[in-house]
């Protein structure tokens, strides 16, 4: 249950409502919204108690019941959309569509710098690259770990782009903080790694939260709720395709959820058409469709020699493809 108060409601009134809930054993949490006080009751509130609070609190303007069991990620927990800020880059509803590009894996200092230059020249806004790789086979390239993180960050700094990289394990967090990675990616395979979500939630760094391979929107939003419950407000949801019966593509890009998420949550929505499709030449079309469906950002993989890529070569785009995606996203998002 989300309680929206009139703007200017005093601290005294808020404390009274919080205490009333607390005496009934109901935990509540305040929104950081500054336009008006907003409170989420974390535990369920009986209709009688709710009516009593409403009848005795003139300042309580509206009570909203979220569509699902989440609280803080609900649209009503904020007045407007959440805008994730990474350096000068702003990602969220109403902002220009942000394009993230880079290799699937960081493949060494020189290669990542080379691709970073191309990503920057193509007009993209953030550099991606995996240093800790969640590979299906234990024999596949696992990434260069901390060394790869440093190479990615150095490449980002050299070309003036913030960097995002996947964190697979809570114990790696100090290394990500030490290297000063600008945004932590939680991958599809770790969307419900609750230990990781709790640790990352407290890290104070923006998070790109990918949808699990077979996660429902409810499970995905509750994973984001874990991050918010830990204190993280700078969260982007990333649709990256889900498992279906279809085998012609790697996954099935579920754009259906975009307008729904827009109604249900204040969080920015990013789309990764690369891991959804798995086939490079259909990705630009899916990127266009994603922007048209309301994506606040697009993330794709770029490689200068896809045949030699250490991972995900078949879905790697050229810098030219990336440049076109940047240009088309600008045109399409200007229509809304
Ligand atoms: C990736 O972005 O490289 C990746 C592994 O993505 P996902 O978790 O969506 O499979
Ligand atoms: Mn990949």
Structure description:
- The structure is a single chain.
- The protein has 336 residues and is of the alpha/beta class.
- The protein has two domains: 2-65, Alpha-Beta Plaits (2-Layer Sandwich), CATH 3.30.70; 84-335, TIM Barrel, CATH 3.20.20.70.
- Helix content is 35%, strand content 16%.
- The protein is built from eleven helices and 14 strands.
- The chain has helices spanning 11-23, 47-56, 109-121, 145-159, 173-179, 194-201, 217-229, 257-264, 273-277, 283-292, 319-333; strands at residues 2-5, 28-30, 38-41, 60-64, 84-86, 89-91, 98-102, 126-128, 163-166, 183-186, 207-210, 235-239, 269-271, 297-301.
- The strands form three sheets. It has an eight-stranded parallel barrel with strand order 7-8-9-10-11-12-13-14, surrounded by seven helices. The chain has a four-stranded antiparallel β-sheet with strand order 2-3-1-4, covered by helices on one side. A two-stranded antiparallel ribbon has the order 5-6.
- β10 (183-186), α6 and β11 (207-210) form a beta-alpha-beta unit.
- The protein is elongated, with a radius of gyration of 21 Å.
- The two termini are 31 Å apart.
- The model has no long low-confidence stretch (mean pLDDT 97).
- Bound molecules: phosphoenolpyruvate and manganese (II) ion.
- Manganese (II) ion (MN) binds at residues 104, 275, 301, 311-312.
């Amino acid at each position: 249950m989300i309680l929206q108060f009139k703007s200017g409601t005093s601290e005294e009134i808020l404390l009274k409502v919080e205490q009333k809930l607390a005496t009934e054993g109901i935990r509540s949490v305040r929104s950081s919204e500054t336009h008006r006080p907003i409170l989420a009751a974390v535990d369920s509130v009986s209709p009688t108690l709710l009516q009593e609070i409403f009848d005795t609190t003139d300042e309580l303007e509206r009570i909203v019941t979220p569509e699902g069991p989440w609280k803080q990620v609900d649209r009503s927990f904020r007045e407007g959309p959440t805008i994730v800020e990474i350096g000068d880059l702003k990602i969220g509803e109403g902002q220009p569509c942000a394009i993230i590009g880079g290799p699937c894996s960081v493949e060494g200092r020189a290669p990542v710098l080379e691709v970073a230059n191309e990503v920057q020249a193509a007009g993209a806004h953030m550099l991606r690259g995996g240093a800790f790789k969640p590979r299906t086979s234990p024999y596949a390239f696992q990434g260069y770990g901390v060394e790869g993180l440093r190479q990615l960050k150095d490449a980002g700094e050299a070309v003036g782009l913030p960097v995002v990289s996947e964190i697979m394990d809570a114990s790696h967090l100090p290394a990500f903080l030490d290297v000063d990675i600008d945004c932590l990616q939680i991958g599809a395979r770790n969307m419900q790694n609750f230990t990781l979500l709790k640790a990352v939630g407290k890290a104070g760094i923006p998070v790109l939260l990918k949808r699990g391979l077979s996660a429902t929107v409810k499970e995905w939003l509750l994973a984001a709720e874990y991050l918010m419950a830990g204190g993280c407000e700078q969260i982007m949801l990333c649709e990256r395709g889900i498992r279906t019966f279809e085998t012609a593509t790697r996954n099935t890009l579920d754009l259906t959820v975009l307008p729904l998420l827009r109604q249900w949550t204040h969080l920015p929505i990013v789309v990764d058409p690369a891991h959804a499709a798995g086939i490079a030449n259909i990705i630009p079309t899916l990127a266009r469709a994603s922007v048209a469906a309301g994506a606040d950002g697009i993330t794709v993989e770029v490689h200068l020699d896809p045949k030699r890529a250490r991972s995900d070569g078949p879905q790697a785009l050229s810098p030219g493809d990336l440049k076109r995606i940047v240009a088309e996203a600008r045109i399409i998002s200007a229509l809304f």
